[in-house]
């Protein structure tokens, strides 16, 4: 069997004192050494979990996973990995499986998709991610309906009231890109009488506005 190429994800929050990424790293390096995993990438984030930089690095890590730069992500614990609803653990692990990237948590060793229980964990996470998407889609649709009922603009004025909010919410909850949604959305009639496509910006603002309701 080929040696797994590992990515270490280290994060300490500046909101809590006394945390040291070096301690996390020592534990993860020991695990990799014991299991024969080669460390090829290390992400170290020492910043508030709600700052911009951690989100950017998290997205960069997922892009590296998509490009097969490593085939297992090793984290110290789940709460050190992701606490943002946009990148929930169930969604991320399901995504990693699509990229053929395994996942291991030092503090929760039962969360090891490289081990013998992967056949159980992988479909479980996929099911949880699907259920989460369904709940989010329903919430988004309700939010859009409330925003429209309150008379709030959720896009360009000439097309806002004609956006297919159900289509937008459904496709977004299914993981479709803004470009995919833009292509799928039908043309609408503007106040000038022209048939035109709502812009990606209008579609995104509609989605974001409903989440704030």
Question: Describe it for me?
Answer:
The protein is α/β, with parallel strands linked by helices. The chain folds into 2 domains: 5-115, Resolvase, N-terminal catalytic domain (Rossmann fold, 3-Layer(aba) Sandwich); 135-211, no CATH class. 49% of the residues lie in helices and 14% in strands. The chain is built from 8 helices and 6 strands. It has helices at residues 21-35, 52-66, 78-81, 89-98, 118-149, 165-173, 178-184, 200-211, and strands spanning 5-12, 38-46, 72-75, 102-105, 188-189, 195-196. The strands form 2 sheets. It has a 4-stranded parallel beta sheet with strand order 2-1-3-4, with helices on both faces. It has a two-stranded antiparallel sheet with strand order 5-6. α4 (89-98) crosses α5 (118-149). The longest helix has 32 residues, at 118-149. The N and C termini lie far apart (51 Å). The relative contact order is 0.10. The model has no long low-confidence stretch (mean pLDDT 75).
Give the helix/strand layout:
Blueprint: E1 5-12, H1 21-35, E2 38-46, H2 52-66, E3 72-75, H3 78-81, H4 89-98, E4 102-105, H5 118-149, H6 165-173, H7 178-184, E5 188-189, E6 195-196, H8 200-211
Parallel strand pairs: 1-2, 1-3, 3-4
Antiparallel strand pairs: 5-6
């Amino acid at each position: 069997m080929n040696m797994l190429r590992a990515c270490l994800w280290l994060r300490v929050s500046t909101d809590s004192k006394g945390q040291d990424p070096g301690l996390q790293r020592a534990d993860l390096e020991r695990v990799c050494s014991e299991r024969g995993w080669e460390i090829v990438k290390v992400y170290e984030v020492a910043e508030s979990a709600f700052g911009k930089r951690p989100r950017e690095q998290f997205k960069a890590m997922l892009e590296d996973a998509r490009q097969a730069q490593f085939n297992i992500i090793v984290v110290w614990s789940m709460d050190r990995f992701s606490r943002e609803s946009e990148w929930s653990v169930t969604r991320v692990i399901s995504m990693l499986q699509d990229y053929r990237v395994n996942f291991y948590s030092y503090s929760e060793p039962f969360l090891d998709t490289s081990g013998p229980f992967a056949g159980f964990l992988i479909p479980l996470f996929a099911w949880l991610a699907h259920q989460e998407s369904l709940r989010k889609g329903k919430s988004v649709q309700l939010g859009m309906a409330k925003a429209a009922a309150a008379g709030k603009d959720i896009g360009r004025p000439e097309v806002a009231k004609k956006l297919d909010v159900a289509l937008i919410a459904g496709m977004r909850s299914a993981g479709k890109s803004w470009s995919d949604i833009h292509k799928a959305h039908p043309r609408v009639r503007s106040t000038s009488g022209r048939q035109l496509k709502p812009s990606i910006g209008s579609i995104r603002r509609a989605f974001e506005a409903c989440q704030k309701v």
